[in-house]
Amino acid sequence: MKDLLCAETLIASCRFLPEERVFFFEECASTNAAAKEWVKAGHTGKALFAAAAQTAGRGRMGRTFYSPTGGVYFTAAQTLDGVPDPVGITCAAAVMTMRTIRELCGLQCEIKWVNDLLYQGKKVCGILTEMVTCGEKSAVLVGIGVNLRPAAFPPDLVRIAGSLGDENTSRADLIAGIAERLFAYLDHPAPEQWLEDYRKHSCVLGKRIAFLREGDWISATALAIAGDGGLLVRSADGEEVLRTGEVTLRLT
After folding, report:
1. pLDDT tens-digit profile of 141-195?
2. C-beta neighbour count of 247 within 10 angstroms
């Protein structure tokens, strides 16, 4: 299938946004960085930034995000009233992405708290949520990368990273489908829109995990997803709710 991802195809798929609010790059450092510049220039409202390739894609905790050709890379930016909840937004973005992949690709992903989607045990999607302040307004930037097409990964990633292996789904349609669901959520955020599916498709609940605390990996059992997206765990120190950080299913 010939899949042309360009400004014209993306705008045609994103009918829920004005044309001037859809930005496309053949290549950019990262779509989150492009969105951040737009917000800091004083723009408000909603906008979508997508790229066919990223040269400096970013993940959580300062990591790089490998962005192979044929993937889907975009950022949804929206100014909000009040103080946004980044954990809840990230959880919602994971569910909205999972639902769109299921609808368009016919594939069911699992969710690894807090911001990854797994398919056949390997990471196929990462989400980076950032907050930007401009004057009296705050904006949320939700960067999403999906490894859609078959891809070869570097040796240091081949054990943990994978792709959906989908060669047919339109990249423009996948971006638009996820973004439309996500913007609708940001307009009227409520946990009931994502919580049940997040719990149902979690791949960590009931499992032995490890989480980072002050630079040390702590072994624990994942017990439940709290109503705000926090992860309830039990370790040798007792029970606690994680609201940020990282967990792994490969115990250290």
Report:
1. 999 999 999 888 888 888 889 999 999 999 999 999 999 999 999 999 999 999 9
2. 21
Considering the domain architecture, whether residues 134 and 33 belong to the same structural domain is answered as yes
Domain range enclosing 80: 7-200
**pLDDT for position 70:** 85
Whether 222 and 168 share a structural domain: no
The domain total for the chain is 2
Q: Which amino acid is at 11?
A: I
Rounded to two decimals, the pTM is 0.93
Reference 127, options 50, 222, 177, 58; nearest CA is 58
Token pair for residue 1?
A: 């299938």
41 with 13, same domain: the answer is: yes
Residues near 108 by beta carbon (within 8 Å), at least 6 away in sequence = 98, 102, 201
Co-location of 179 and 63 in the same domain: yes
Cα(11)–Cα(19) distance, rounded to whole angstroms? 6
My answer on whether 165 and 135 are in the same domain is: yes
Angstrom CA distances, 3 to 70, 148, 169, stand at 9, 12, 8
